Amino acid sequence: MEAALRQAYEAFGETQAERGVDLGAVEERLRAQRVETPSWGYGNSGTRFAVFPQPGLPRDPFEKLQDAAQVHAHTGICPSVALHIPWDRVDDYGELADYAASLGLRLGAINPNLFQDEEYRLGSVCNPDPAVRRRATDHLLECVEIAGEVKSGVLSLWLADGTNYPGQDSFVERRGRMLECLSEVYGRMPEDMRLLLEYKLFEPAFYHTDLCDWGTALTMCQKLGERALVLVDLGHHAQGVNVEHIVSLLLDEGRLGGFHFNNRKYADDDLIVGSVNPFELFLIYVELLEAEEDPGVRIEYMIDQAHNIEPKIEAMILSVMNLQEAYAKALLVDRRALREARRSGDVLAAHRVLLDAYSADVRPLCARVREDLGASADPVAAFRASGYLERVAEERREGRPAGWG
User: Fold this and answer.
1) Which residue in 95, 213, 329, 340 is deepest, having the highest Cβ count within 10 Å?
2) Residue 26 and residue 370: Cα distance in Å, rounded?
3) What tens digit of pLDDT does each residue of 138-151 get?
4) Burial classification of residue 253, based on how many CB atoms lie within 10 Å of its CB (0-12 exposed, 13-18 middle, 19 or more buried)
5) Dist. CA 34–CA 338, nearest whole Å
């Protein structure tokens, strides 16, 4: 650790000791933090209007893993990579898993695609055509098998199903079709596999979305079984929705399965984590921390982003750094003082407890933890200095970059 950074860390430690913070315990929790990055975050992506290609993008799932390994190497907390099927379909998934292991990674959540095939124009598992529903269910079962092959315990499902016009279909009948299809899939999952069901307020359907909020996702999970849990994507809510409140409710119900971390300004923008509303990110972690102390609670922390104009690997690294810092700040909250202020009805004292933790400059702490993990004190600078991007840009000049579809 460089002298200036060491001095900043020591000064930080003195300040926190005065507050009664057990810095050793905080660092232990930070070293144990894990975040899963998505394979699709490393390939070509764009908006409805255009895709802006970049040099050196991966051409297949193996090269996506190479890029993901860079994020893990520089941050120290991203050992797993989510796959998207069919975008990441290969002939031999055992070979892909072995290659991931050779890079110090493992394969994580399997994400089915039920939104791009022409047959899904009127929906997938909610489609009025039983043949289309059968096709969708078979794809989900294929993904269950793939998860087994790569030793993943998570099937992560987002459905684009919905309608564009009033009267187009029956809300109740569509829900029944979804339950029938997902029940078959759930029944075929091994006992150690979990289904994470993701909701989204709108898009691509314009009139209604079949899984539009946490309530519709939760009730579906309750019908399916204990291993069906809700996945929260931070960009999938109406403007002004209190996401940390949703988090606390799902935790209280024992049904919070995971997160897709990103950030938004208006809709599902898939921006770098914490880039627009870092205070919200901090408040979410405040709700999560106590739940993490329960050994029976298992929450999957995953990033879901589409980097349109920013460099893919650097953007992913920055998102992970922002997650580290938000987590660190949440660990600094004086829980005892917070409880006392709440019980006494001291509104501003309770609020100031959170502000005291949020205002702390935790960058020296996170740099120290990353170095303890054998990663980089300054991940973005270290990655830029590594020459990795320039090297793969030359190596990957031929062929077609991987992307959506």
Assistant:
1) 329
2) 13
3) 999 999 999 999 99
4) middle
5) 27
